[in-house]
Amino acid sequence: MTLKIHNTLTNKKENFIPLEEGKVSIYVCGVTVYDDIHLGHARSIIVFDMVVRYLRHCGYKVTHVTNFTDVDDKIIARANEEGIDPLELSARYIQRYFEDIDALKVRRADAYPKASESMDVIIDMVQDIIEKGFAYVTDEGNVYFSIDKVGDYGRLTKQRLEDMISGQRDVLQDPDKRNPMDFAIWKAVKPGEIAWDSPWGKGRPGWHIECSAMIRNHLGDIIDIHGGGNDLIFPHHENEILQTEAVTGGMLARYWMHNGMLQIQDQKMSKSLGNFLRVSELVKEYDSETIRFYLLNTHYRGPLLFTKSSLEEAKSSLRRLWNLRSELESYRAEGSDDASDIIDESKGRFYEQMDDDFNTRGAISVLFDLARELTRLIASSSLSKRGASEALGFLHEVDNILGFFPENGLNDDTSALIDLLIDVRQELRRRKMFDLSDTIRNRLKEMGIQLEDTAEGVKWKRI
After folding, report:
1. What is the CATH number of the domain that holds 388?
2. Residues 222 and 324 in one domain
3. Where does residue 105 fall: left (phi above 0), alpha (psi -120 to 50 degrees), or beta otherwise?
4. Is 442 helix (H, G, I), strand (E, B) or coil?
5. CA 283, CA 296: separation in Å to the nearest integer?
C-alpha cells in the first residue's frame, strides 16, 4: 500500500511522492522558549517524532528540522521580569526542552535552528520580499508584508480574508499600515528591547519570517512536509506561504500536516490559558512509554481531551502489551503452532493502518488483536519458539516506530535470573519458610515484576 498523507492545503488524502526519490525533507514548527513545554507541546512533538520514525522505517532518508523561536515579545517580557538577557532566558528553556524530549524518548531532529542565530538569512529574505514589491517600510523602520499584493490569502484555512480572525500575535497598531491585515516581517526596536542592525534600522524579525528564512536556509526553496499544530494554520502558516512564494515564486511545501489540539474542558492546553501540565512534572508520575502510548492511541489530526483517568487507562492498556512481550521473552514451550500466518497478517494490517495517514489508533488496535491471539496460544502451550521469536521481532519493529516499550525489554540473563528467583521461592515455600518466600515476591513487585501462582506453575509479568 502506498503511504497516504492528509494534506491540509488540499483537504484530502494524497499519495505521498517526495520531491527526490528516497529522500524526505520535513520542517516542524517548534516552541517559543520562555517556559517549560507542556503536554500539548508534547503531543505535536511525539506525533512528528512518530512520522519521522515511520518514514525512516519505510526506507526514506529523512532530514528533519525543528526551530526554536528565541526572540519574541513573551521572552522579552519574562526576561525583563527576571532582570536577565532574553537570550539567556531562552537558552535556559532550550536546555530544559531537550531534557524533556529526551525523557519522552523523542529522537533528536537533524537541526534546531534558532531565530537569534539566523539573522543574516532572515534580513536577506526580508530584503528580497521588499525588492520584489511584496512589502513596504514605514518611517519608523517597521517592514510589513502587503496582503493586497496577493490574491489567494487563506489557502490553508479555506476562508475569505474578511472572515478570518485577525488575532495575529505580531500585529502592531501602526497607522502607517496600508491594510489592517498586513503583518510585520521586521519590527523596529522599542526602548529596552533586544535588537539587531538592519537596512531599515535596529529591530528584530516578525514571527512568521523566522520560519520561512530558516526553512529556505536549511532545506531549500521547497520542502516535502511542513508540520505543526492546527492552531498554527492561521496566521502563522498562511503567512509563511506568502513570504516564501513572494521570494521563490513557487510553493513552500508539497504536504501540510497539522495535529489536533490537546484539550482540557473544551479548551486547548496552552500557557496563555494557564491550564497546562508541564512535561517535567508529568514524567515524575508517569513513565515516558505511557505518555507516548496515550498521545498516539488516537489519530493525530483529531482533538484529544485530557483527563488523569485517561492516562491511567492508557497505563493499564499498555501493560497488556508489555506483559505479552515479557511472556514471549520467557517462553520455553515446544508448541506446534509457529503463528507465522497470524503474525504476517497482523503486520500487514498494522502497516496498512500506518500507511493510511499515520493512523496510529488503528495500528494499535491491530496490536491488541494480535496480543489476544498470542495469549491464547501461550496459555495452551501451542506456540512454538519460532513463533514467539517472530512475534518479538514484530514488536521490536513496532517499538522502533511508536516507542512505547521499555528499553531493551528483558534480556535472556534477566529472564533467567527471574526464573531462578521463582525456583528459590518455590523451594522456600516447600520448606514452609513463607516469610522469605514472601520477601522474594514483594521485592520483585517493587521492581515491577508480579508473580502469579497458577495451576500450570508460577508465571510472572510486568506491572
Report:
1. 1.20.120.640
2. no
3. left
4. helix
5. 16
